[in-house]
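Hi L.,

You mentioned the student needs an example of a multi-chain input paired with its predicted structure. This one should do, with 764 residues in total across all chains.
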Amino acid sequence: MKTTAPANTSVSKPMAAEIPFNKPSKLKRMEQFKDLLCVIPALIFLVIFTYYPIVDLFRISFTDWNLIKDTYTYVGAKNWIWLFQGSGWDTFLQSLKVTALYTLGELTITLVGGILLALLFNRISKPFSAMRAIVFMPKYIAVSTSAIVFLWILNGESGILNYVLNKLGFESVAWTTSEKTALLSVLMLTAWRVVGYAMMIYLSAIRGISQDYYEAASLDGANGFQQFWRITVPLLSPTTLFLFVTTFIASMKVFQSVDVMTEGGPYGSTQVMVHWIYELAFKDFRVDRAAVVSCVFFIILVTFTAATLKWSNKSVNYDS
Amino acid sequence: MKKVLAIVLAAALALTTLAGCSGGSTGTAPASSSSTALTGEDGGAPTADQFEVTEPIEIEWWHAQESQYAETIDKVIADFEAQNPNIKVNAIYQGSYTELNEKLIAAQAAGNTLPALVVANTPYVAEYGASGLCEVLDPYIEATGFEIDDFGEGLVASTQYDGQQVALPFLISTQIMFYNKTMADEEGIKLPETWDEMDAFMEAASKDGRYATVFPGWDQWYFEPYYLNRGVKLVNDDQVSTDLDSDLAIETAQKLKEWCDKGYAYWAYGTDASSIMRQNFIDGKTFSVMHTTSLYNTYVDNCDFEVGMHYYPGDVTRDSEVGGCVLLIPAKNSQEVKNAGWKLLSYLCSKEVNMIWASESGYMPTRNSVLQTEEGEAFLAEKPAFKAVFDNLDNINPRIQHPAWSSFANIWKETMAKSILENGDIAADMKNAVTEMNEVLSDA
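Structure written out for the whole complex:
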């Protein structure tokens, strides 16, 4: 049986030959070069201060450098073995768990608290403007300053929170010194700081949603909750994604509030990953081990962020 | 094209890491200059002339002394500059000892922003010394005739590494028991001289909800003398194991817990534990507290009763450990900067300046010669409670020096706090902790 080539083969070749390759014009090439020149300073900055340190971190993880010595020895995978097969593994898991719990807490506060406050403060009047400003303000107060104030408020012996609890007939709580409540104490400060910012972002997004949707839904008999759930929430999904990604990265990197309020204690119950890395590098002088933990943590962060962005491409509604 | 680029980048990354796997080879971290051996012109011992400052120079001194000491620092530096017109000193407050440590090692790694002189908390001396951060001061001491023998033996040892003098004692403190002297006199409370007398003391000094004392559990430095004086080796001679699971150590831990369980004392723990403990003492809620001598002025200024100081009770020995800070010269500096740094260091560690600090703070006089002088008598007349320290200057020992000490101490204090505060089985908890501690020690 004789086989024949597909009919379109003979057609496509001459067609391809007929379409000339569009070489960019000289003017366009000049434009592209100009664009490149504009980004080069930023690119150099990124290479020197971001990409090179990341690569160098991997290199340091194979040394025994302690940051003070002028010389170091390459020790192979010793530090990686310490993390995955040695005494570092349990602390790593504990630290990862604490970081995940903290992140979950901050994400919940930011996304749920932010949207609820945005709905509450979505009024155009002077008193509401003033109240919005008050709720938003903590974002711009230094974390260490806020943390010290919260330490006073949460002081187990003389803190005002325990004073109020006692007046209401409750027992005093060892807020920052009990492993049951220490992470919650740090999250209280976080809530106070971040919820106003999330509210403002949501508020601007809510005001961008066309009223036509709500009018149409009302005509169809949708109640307030249905309108919120079926219109507001889906149309806020790009804002939610933005807040999710930025809050996720920021909360995974939490350090200052933990350092001031609990120093990672009690008994490691607030030992978030960055604080552990800091202690390894600057208290134990084990920069080599800090580098290994940083590398693994970096991979975890990148993987989660990439997965979130990929998921968002499928699930986020950009039609508002 | 994109795929190719990605593969190339990934390969480059892999190569970088693989290069690191070649165990045994060595590398060099960035450095601006290195320390060179100091010798005299004829190759012998260096002479004092080599350490003279002949040209005008401006140097930095990094310290951790808070604002309440600003006036003292200004006064001391002004006097120094008047005596050394070639040297201009910028005294820079760099935050707490921890923050100062971060900045110092960052500057050391960068190699070009190091101060001429820097203070360091005593536990850092070992690691700094082992890493070559500090200039070895022996040639300076020898050439300029600096009276190092006038310091207590323990103080000199605490500023040495591997037999070399890498720092000098500056603002020195030690563990002490502050007590309410007015209360002690009124109620006839006898302070414990030995470990065996502690039970009677605890019972006598605690009443009507008042504690006999407080154990500062936030820092093991405060409770380690009890172990050391009973003969427990915190780090054994093999440097890879601890004696903290021995019968004696477990018995000591159980006794500390028992006193807390009975309500005689409480275990202060957490970031605000120090301030709460201090306030409890000021308010009369506890008869005594164990703290650092450097806080003497703070207690005296805030208490409306007479404050006494009592040296920790002993057992086999009756020693305490050095606290506070030392002064060192970073070795990476140029010789001109080091010379100016040495001038400032020797001035700040002089008897005269030390007495200024001692009278204006709770830090101790560090010179033996002061004790028998009019200055010493005047100091004791002003601060009579310091007699407890003066009587024991030779019993103040260096802190334990081990590269893994920080991790080791952290496991210890966390275990003690958890077991005492959450009513655990302290014997079992300590035995478990020791497994981890031994691992940390042997892994250093």
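You could point out the following to them. The first strand of chain B starts at residue 26 and ends at 28. Chain B has a mean pLDDT of 87.

Best wishes,
N.
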